[in-house]
């Protein structure tokens, strides 16, 4: 059982480490962190838009006087739910891995397919409607101002926050190319970014699942008590083990169906997710299986089709009401 509730806002982890949580942890609702020692501060990630980031910074400032000035920011990866609020801390030093910096630079040059769909969602059918529903309509995506990291590193970097040591390790490509772990060894606390989704189906878009499993294995070797995941409630190493099992399970189950020639959409519905009941964003199974099929050698999945399927699944599930426990599987798999 977690010692912390999963409620929106700041949670004090002790010793100058804080988490900022955003339930339900699904699309766009990411977590962030604050590390403080004396009057020195390091912010781990910003949020999906300026209003949410402003709200977070205000709550940090009212709880922690030193947070009036954010010295440094680490972006754990390039996705906008961890970076799009950078404009509000633009006078801080912003640090990211080189791969994250490159991804953010590309997005700032307009190469962001998801953003393109969200801002023109009416032209993208069911896929557009889905992305509008889960992100575009909930976040201020129009006013995105790209503020890039001012400093980057290849694989590892050591920082100090006052007297506190903070270790950055690039562990991607896992969930994204540049995933970075932010580890405070003395306090046995880890800010994992999206290497860990806790009780949320992980977003697996164009990623290397085998590497992601290895990244989980690496995290499992760390001496940490508390993990602030990129999405979902505050966790510990058990959640990393569970997610590792999730990734491996999908890899194995998708492979069986790929080898049997089962189409992606059918395979996604055929793989039982009973063990992950109640996790947010269940419909991501379509995107996950499509990406796994691609990693097995199938042609790149038509992402719009997968998003459309995901949207339909989510709508059916919602129509069933919050008490819905069935998976909308056409049938359950015997194995
Ligand atoms: Zn992400």
Which keywords apply here?
single chain, 335 residues, alpha/beta, Metallo-beta-lactamase, Chain A, seven-stranded mixed beta sheet, five-stranded mixed beta sheet, 10 helices, 12 strands, 35% helix, globular, disordered C terminus, binds zinc ion, NDM-1-like, RibonucZ/Hydroxyglut_hydro
- Considering the protein shown, what is the CATH homologous superfamily of the largest domain? Ribonuclease Z/Hydroxyacylglutathione hydrolase-like
Largest sheet strand order = 1-2-3-4-5-6-7
Fold-level CATH name of the largest domain:
Metallo-beta-lactamase, Chain A
Largest sheet: 7 strands, mixed
**Do you know the CATH architecture of the largest domain?**
4-Layer Sandwich
Total strand segments: 12
Secondary structure class reads alpha/beta
Query: What is the H/E order?
Result: EEEEHEHEHHHEEEEEHEHHHH
Describe the protein.
- It is a single chain.
- The protein is α/β, with parallel strands linked by helices and 335 residues long.
- The protein has two domains: 9-237, Ribonuclease Z/Hydroxyacylglutathione hydrolase-like (Metallo-beta-lactamase, Chain A, 4-Layer Sandwich); 247-319, no CATH class.
- 35% of the residues lie in helices and 20% in strands.
- The protein contains ten helices and twelve strands.
- Strands 1-2-3-4-5-6-7 form a seven-stranded mixed sheet. Strands 8-9-10-11-12 form a five-stranded mixed sheet, with helices on one face.
- Strand 8 (156-161) and strand 9 (164-170) form a beta hairpin.
- The two termini are 30 Å apart.
- The relative contact order is 0.13.
- The model is unreliable at 329-335 (pLDDT under 50).
- Zinc ion (ZN) binds next to loops.
